[in-house]
TrEMBL record:
A Pfam family the protein falls into: MFS_1
Keyword field contains Transmembrane helix: yes
Major facilitator superfamily (MFS) profile domain: residues covered: 69-469
Protein name (record): Major facilitator superfamily domain-containing protein
Keyword Electron transport: no
Gene Ontology cellular-component terms listed: plasma membrane
CDD domains: MFS_SV2_like (cd17316)
Organism: Lasiosphaeris hirsuta
InterPro entries listed in its UniProt record: MFS, MFS_dom, MFS_trans_sf
């Protein structure tokens, strides 16, 4: 990013002012940035976005160690997606196996998504406090065990219970995976690497669809896909054991170790939430839209082809594979373009184009036509998603790059958790006439209308939201090490005053001064 040293309007304060400024900046090619001087004073300046560079030269900027961390993060995210989609693409088989409806089976998807936010909070905070390694190892090993437990669920109630527990541990993967994979990535390469990393989700879907294609359409064949998923998850967990902790995390922790205090992490967390609560709410809303976007357009698509389009298991699986190949390609290319075109502009354009493609996505007949339309639809759906990992990382408070993206992402997942269940319930209660003249469940119209509304919601929410492309957070200390430990704490002053006893004016001034000193490092890191 090239600083032009041209003064810009200060960063707006307040929700409406920020929204107006964000909308205006969307149509301004230059980027508004906050610059700090040696005295800690901040001003707003214009900067010229980095030109679009040869992607191979960007890939070459990563060292061998950077690539190892990236590949492990990608593998963990892909295994996580495989485990999830092992269920979503086999709803018809599972409904037959448990002798229930597809809507009931999608209850398992809802439970999984509901509990992912709890896992994201627990393991994300653990990753920020103790490192990226062991929380991820624990996550992957337990996910593998729960995949096996799903296979041995004798009743539908046991099946739902295991999938709910599965969601708890699934939620912890995303935040630690993207923090480990992207935090050492060079600034210019972040957009490209973010796009590649996010497509681990699509790659996991492709692998699950390939496994489903290979095992055939028999009622019990779903178990084989779950066995494969269990092996992949446990394998990634074991492999992660042999890799060291993130070098950046270790160096930052070593630098701030002398300032650390057992309660400092939670004090800094409270300060961050007090300062950044609006950003938290915004990111949760954005992730709610995005998770509806993803799950509505893909979780029931195989079911749509099997029921409304009357394809067989092999044809639907092949079309699903091609659809998600489009997602992998689109996410990588569009994520790469966002480094030059801007995070928000890229998301808005991709969402609008995907909305325009909806008729071509649900109206065709036959495997070839559905494969082609699915490819281009997911090219733009996951293209918008490809920007999200780095966009969330740049919007995150720097010291909370493991917990903040994971928690906001999974809270959005929690809110959107009924998406597949809603699509199935509406589709099964309405019928349309298929190409062969049969009355079939209306998956196409339901998915099309829902996706159109969601794409518009994403475009509007992103257009009026913030962007911090090119943010420098590499030198930030881990959470809990940005708060000064010297002198008397604010909590100590409050305790000295006695419960319910007002502080004397001098102590109030002292409290305010200590509060400012205490929060200064955190505020500085949040504004970078």
């Amino acid at each position: 990013m090239e600083y032009l040293h041209e003064p810009a309007d200060p960063i707006a304060k307040g929700i409406l002012a920020t929204a107006r400024q964000s909308w205006s900046d969307l149509f301004t090619w230059k980027q508004r940035v906050v610059v700090s001087n040696a005295y800690g004073e901040t001003t707003a300046e214009w900067a010229r976005p980095a030109p679009l560079r040869n992607p191979f030269s960007l890939l070459a900027q990563l060292s061998g160690r950077d690539w190892l961390f990236f590949i492990v993060g990608f593998a963990a995210w892909s295994a996580d997606a495989f485990d999830f989609h092992a269920l979503s693409i086999q709803q018809v088989k599972l409904a037959e196996y448990y002798n229930t409806s597809k809507t009931d089976i999608s209850t398992a998807i809802t439970l999984t998504l509901l509990l992912r936010s709890i896992g994201a909070a627990a393991f994300g905070l653990a990753g920020d406090k103790w490192g990226r390694k062991w929380p991820m190892v624990l996550n992957m090993l337990i996910l593998g065990v729960l995949q096996i437990a799903t296979i041995y669920s004798a009743t539908f109630s046991q099946f739902l219970a295991v999938r709910a527990l599965f969601g708890l541990f699934m939620g912890g993967v995303y935040g630690n995976a993207i923090a480990m994979a992207l935090e050492n990535s060079p600034v210019d390469a972040r957009g490209l690497m973010s796009g590649i990393l996010q497509q681990g989700y699509s790659f996991g879907y492709v692998c699950a669809a390939c496994a489903n294609l290979g095992v055939g359409g028999e009622k019990d064949s779903w178990k084989t896909v779950f066995w494969i998923g269990a092996g992949v998850s446990i394998g990634v967990g074991v492999i992660r054991c042999f890799f060291p902790e993130s070098k950046q995390f270790l160096e930052a922790r070593k630098e701030g170790r002398n300032q650390a205090h057992p309660s400092a992490f939670w004090k800094e967390t409270r300060i961050m939430l007090r300062q950044e609560w609006k950003m938290c709410i915004y990111c949760i809303i954005l992730m709610t839209w995005f998770n509806y976007y993803s799950h509505t357009s893909q979780d029931s698509y195989t079911t749509f082809m099997l029921t409304q389009k009357e394809l067989n298991n092999s044809g639907a699986s092949r079309a699903s594979i091609i659809m998600k190949v489009g997602a992998c390609v689109g996410g990588t290319i569009i994520g790469y373009i966002s480094q030059w075109f801007g995070r928000r502009r890229t998301i808005v354009v991709a969402a609008i184009v995907s909305g325009c493609l909806i008729p071509a996505w649900i109206l065709p007949q036959g495997e070839r036509s559905l494969s082609a339309s699915g490819f281009f639809m997911q090219f733009f759906v996951q293209g918008a998603w490809g920007v999200i990992p780095i966009h969330l990382n740049e919007l995150s408070p720097p010291a909370f790059r493991s917990s903040f993206p994971g928690i906001t992402y999974q809270l959005g997942n929690m809110i959107s958790s009924p998406s597949a269940q809603i699509v199935n319930a509406i589709s099964e209660s309405h019928h349309v006439t298929s190409n062969t003249g049969k009355s079939v469940e209306a998956y196409g119209p339901t998915m099309g209308i829902a996706t159109a509304i969601i794409a518009l919601g994403i475009a509007v929410t992103t257009a009026f939201g913030p962007e911090k492309r090119g943010r420098e957070f590499e030198k930030t200390k881990p959470a809990g090490m940005n708060v000064l430990q010297e002198g008397k704490r604010v909590d100590d002053l409050e305790a000295d005053a006695g419960a319910g006893t007002p502080l004397p004016s001098s102590d109030l001034e002292t409290k305010k001064a200590v509060q400012q000193v205490e929060e200064a490092p955190v505020r500085s890191s949040l504004e970078k």
